[in-house]
Amino acid sequence: MKKRLLSLSIGLLLAGCASRQYTPELRYVAPADAAMPPATLQSKFSTHLGRHESQSLQILDDISCKPQRVFYAWQSSGQAPAPVPVEAGHVITLVYTATLPGERSCTIYAGMIFESGKTYSVSGGNNVLAGVADYFKNRTCSFSIVDESTKQVQPLLDKTHICGK
């Protein structure tokens, strides 16, 4: 009787775990019907992060208010992800998130207008160019977007109001 009760209990626990609905994270894809050709964004996030560190960049859909992942770096991946085409010609809301040792984390919202045909890079956390750390400094992290043709840091727009709030 004990074995049957134990088997039934374990079966119910496993069924409960398996029935939890998993919603995969949305990946950003530049709209195919955009008015102009996209820009290109490449990651300069560190590929040698520690066990309790991660960095991500998402683009927030201002209509649905759903974030769409562009880049995610966690632990030591060893290689940078492939560049991603991004919509150009209007303000896009970027969401940079970093987790750091000691259960610290930060999230920064900023706007950016990408120029069609240009290539940009994003860096953040401890991997920022000298003098860039003051951009949207948030005690524990910062991020920047650099125009790769000029090597100039691009101005980021303050996005304190997101998703119609």
Largest sheet composition: 5 strands, mixed
Question: Please, what is the average pLDDT?
Answer: 75
CATH class group: Mainly Beta
Helix content: 10-25%
Total domain units:
1
Q: What is the radius of gyration computed over CA atoms, rounded to a whole number of angstroms?
A: 20 Å
SSE string: HEEEEEEEEEE
Number of strands: 10
Summing up helix and strand content along with how strands pair, one would put the structural category as mainly beta
Assign the CATH architecture.
Sandwich
Uncertain spans:
8-23, 127-139
CATH fold name: Immunoglobulin-like
Instruction: Please give the count of helices.
Output: 1
Q: Give the strand line-up of the largest sheet.
A: 4-1-7-8-9
Proportion of residues in extended strands: 35-45%
Report the end-to-end length measured between terminal Cα atoms.
Answer: 58 Å
| Shape descriptor | globular
Give a short summary of the structure:
This protein has 165 residues and is mostly beta strands. The chain has one helix at residues 2-18; strands at residues 39-43, 54-60, 67-74, 84-86, 91-100, 104-113, 119-124, 143-147, 152-153, 157-158. The protein has one domain: Immunoglobulin-like (Sandwich).
